[in-house]
């Protein structure tokens, strides 16, 4: 075989090999029930439609981001998912790529808040964990309608707060701080509110199972927490409902991000598009009661009753700046620990 023939054969083989290599992506997921829903709602349908293999690394947001930073010259992920705002830092450090409607057509149908940072490289939010008031409907004499109601004396001995080492607990504190007149520069009003509530009989827990125990065994009526966990309590047989406070609904944004420095940009973009599709979002909402971000998502009445749903309801969603939280996390955690030490 001549040198020219060998080169031609090599080029032909590469041409056939390239699509096969491109038919595989690596993502992270969060394990447990979330990963089960992720497979059912996005990963398996994506594989069925494209024939692509999806390699899953179970890694929560902070760990996945640490891996992304450490592997910046040779990243393992094609798509990386965050729930703690890490996409803002990752985009600023050049670790993520911007997506466009040409790459991800479903972007066109997202609510504006879910795609506000995509031009900067921040991935779009494909699910929202809304934080509001989880209420024991069969116990509370009168249902609260706003966050400020948490300060009512009649609720105090039946109120469950969550330590801010828990992400939802952090959001709950910042919301209490806001209604008490505080700001990102000053959380003392929120800490004072927590102290007042504890003096009146409220309790602080650290984990989700502890919240369930308080509702099941200790006559809890109200806990500032997320809609997805309210659904968990309902599945456990407890009569609870999720109520949005009139002042607004703070939320954790779950984002799908395109990683820089990888070869499978087109296939990874298709995976993100699948995550944003109405069918995938409706599936997630049914499975875990997350709020959809695609305006064309249709939910059953039963599911819609448990989540923030529709354009009007979505207007009440709010997000505390993850950069501010991260910059102050250590100091705030120490201050909160001192406040609840009693």
UniProtKB/TrEMBL annotation:
<keyword id="KW-0732">Signal</keyword>
<dbReference type="GO" id="GO:0030975">
    <property type="term" value="F:thiamine binding"/>
</dbReference>
<dbReference type="Pfam" id="PF13416">
    <property type="entry name" value="SBP_bac_8"/>
</dbReference>
<dbReference type="GO" id="GO:0030976">
    <property type="term" value="F:thiamine pyrophosphate binding"/>
</dbReference>
<protein>
    <submittedName>
        <fullName>ABC transporter substrate-binding protein</fullName>
    </submittedName>
</protein>
<dbReference type="GO" id="GO:0030288">
    <property type="term" value="C:outer membrane-bounded periplasmic space"/>
</dbReference>
<feature type="signal peptide">
    <location>
        <begin position="1"/>
        <end position="22"/>
    </location>
</feature>
<dbReference type="GO" id="GO:0015888">
    <property type="term" value="P:thiamine transport"/>
</dbReference>
<keyword id="KW-0574">Periplasm</keyword>
<dbReference type="InterPro" id="IPR006059">
    <property type="entry name" value="SBP"/>
</dbReference>
């Amino acid at each position: 075989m001549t040198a020219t023939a060998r080169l031609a054969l090599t080029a032909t083989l590469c041409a056939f090999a390239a699509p096969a290599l491109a038919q595989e992506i690596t993502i992270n997921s969060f394990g447990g029930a979330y990963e089960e829903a992720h497979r059912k709602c996005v990963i398996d349908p994506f594989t069925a439609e494209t024939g692509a293999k999806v390699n899953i690394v179970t890694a929560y947001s902070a760990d996945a981001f640490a891996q992304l930073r450490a592997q910046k010259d040779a990243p393992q992920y094609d798509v990386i998912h965050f729930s703690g705002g890490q996409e803002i830092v990752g985009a600023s450090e050049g670790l993520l790529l911007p997506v466009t409607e040409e790459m991800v057509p479903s972007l066109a149908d997202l609510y504006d808040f879910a795609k506000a940072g995509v031009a900067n490289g921040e991935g779009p939010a494909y699910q929202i964990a809304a934080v509001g008031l989880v209420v024991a409907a069969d116990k509370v004499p009168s249902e609260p309608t706003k966050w400020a109601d948490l300060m009512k004396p009649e609720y105090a001995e039946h109120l469950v707060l969550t330590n801010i080492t828990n992400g939802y607990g952090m959001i709950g504190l910042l919301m209490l701080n806001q209604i008490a007149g505080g700001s990102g520069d000053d959380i003392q009003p929120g800490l004072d509110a927590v102290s007042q509530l504890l003096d009146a009989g409220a309790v602080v827990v650290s984990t989700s199972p502890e919240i369930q125990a308080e509702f099941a065994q200790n006559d809890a009526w109200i806990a500032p927490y997320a809609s997805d966990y309210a659904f968990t309590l309902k599945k456990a047989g407890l009569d609870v409902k999720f109520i949005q406070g009139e002042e607004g609904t703070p939320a954790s944004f779950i984002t799908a991000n395109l990683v820089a420095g990888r070869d499978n940009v087109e296939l990874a973009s298709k995976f993100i598009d699948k995550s944003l599709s109405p069918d995938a979002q409706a599936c997630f909402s049914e499975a875990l009661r997350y709020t959809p971000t695609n305006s064309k998502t249709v939910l059953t009445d039963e599911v819609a009753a448990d989540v923030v749903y529709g354009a009007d309801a979505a207007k009440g969603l709010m997000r505390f700046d993850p950069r501010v939280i991260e910059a102050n996390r250590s100091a705030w955690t120490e201050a909160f620990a001192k406040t609840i030490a009693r």
